[in-house]
Design goal:
With 284 residues, the chain is α+β, with helices and mostly antiparallel strands. It folds into three domains: 59 residues, no CATH class; 62 residues; 123 residues, Alpha-Beta Plaits. The protein contains four helices and seven strands. A hairpin with a 5-residue loop joins strand 3 and strand 4.
Length: 284
């Protein structure tokens, strides 16, 4: 007689016996193939044989419920598709020539005396005469600026004070560059004995920078067109533009430590070269 409580144990024994029989008879048990989709592996139901007739009521057949084994294989996600950009990268060089339209003059007065008071007083008188001469040459007050003042002892041998030296320097901006030589001459004739240097520049550097950048952009486009033509490509647009350096040199005239009142000062500004650079990526 089979009790209800014995059914699980009997099912286990039957399944084990079926497996052992398959192994002994050389039957292969196929492993279910793994597929991206979930698949079910059916298991045949086992039927318990009826016990020998003993006069008792036959036991009901017991059928094992099918067992399904789920096999899940995670599919590899597809890599993200990134748009590829085709580009021709070139660096353009721009160069323009321009004549400076203003100058900056550094000049001054140096005086010496036995006492500090005398040295400073003499320097004040000489510097006032120089400034007056510069103004008389047509330079307004706003373009004249004191750039240095000093009063120091003159130390001789045995570390003794031999006198005092006073120095006064001014910076003069000359907007009419053709006046540069005349202004410097006026300062020297008035008593300036420290003609430092002359710098040339431009009143409007922005316009020159833009012209140089435009020339660099045109050079970049010309280079890209030449490359595209040689490679059989067709330029379709511009991916990016990066501005490089823009160079505006500041040339200096030769400095003059001491100038003679009778010596003329020729000044020639010449031309300056402004350069620019841009890097452009052209798409095709």
């Amino acid at each position: 007689m089979i009790l209800i409580d014995d059914i699980p144990r009997l099912l286990t024994l039957v399944a084990a016996g079926a497996l052992a029989g398959a192994l002994l008879t050389g039957c292969a048990i196929d492993r279910p193939a793994l597929t991206p989709a979930a698949t079910a592996t059916p298991v045949a139901a086992a039927v318990l044989p009826a016990p020998a007739s003993t006069g008792a009521r036959p036991a009901a057949a017991v059928r094992a419920a099918p067992v399904q084994v789920q096999s899940v294989v995670a599919a590899n996600p597809a890599p993200p598709v990134s748009g590829s950009t085709h580009g021709i990268t070139v660096t353009g060089q721009g160069r323009i020539q321009a004549r400076p339209d203003q100058a900056t003059i550094e000049t001054g007065v140096q005086t010496q005396a036995t006492t500090a008071r005398e040295a400073q007083a003499a320097n004040n008188r000489a510097m006032q005469a120089v400034i007056s001469a510069i103004k008389a040459a047509g330079i307004p007050d706003r373009d004249i600026q004191t750039s240095g003042l000093s009063l120091s002892p003159i130390i001789g041998e045995n570390q003794t004070v031999q006198g005092y030296r006073a120095v006064n320097n001014v910076t003069v901006r000359v907007e009419n560059i053709d006046q540069t030589g005349a202004v410097l001459d006026a300062a020297i004739q008035a008593g300036a004995n420290m003609a430092g240097s002359v710098r040339f520049g431009f009143k409007d550097e922005t316009s020159l920078r833009n012209q140089a950048l435009a020339a660099a952009a045109a050079d970049a486009r010309s280079k890209a067109a030449a490359l595209a033509s040689a490679l059989g490509l067709q330029i379709s647009g511009i991916e990016s533009v990066v501005e490089g350096t823009v160079s505006i040199p500041i040339p200096l005239a030769a400095p003059r430590a001491v100038a003679s009142a009778s010596e003329a000062v020729p000044v020639e500004p010449g031309e300056q070269t402004i350069t620019a650079q841009v890097t452009v990526v052209f798409s095709y």
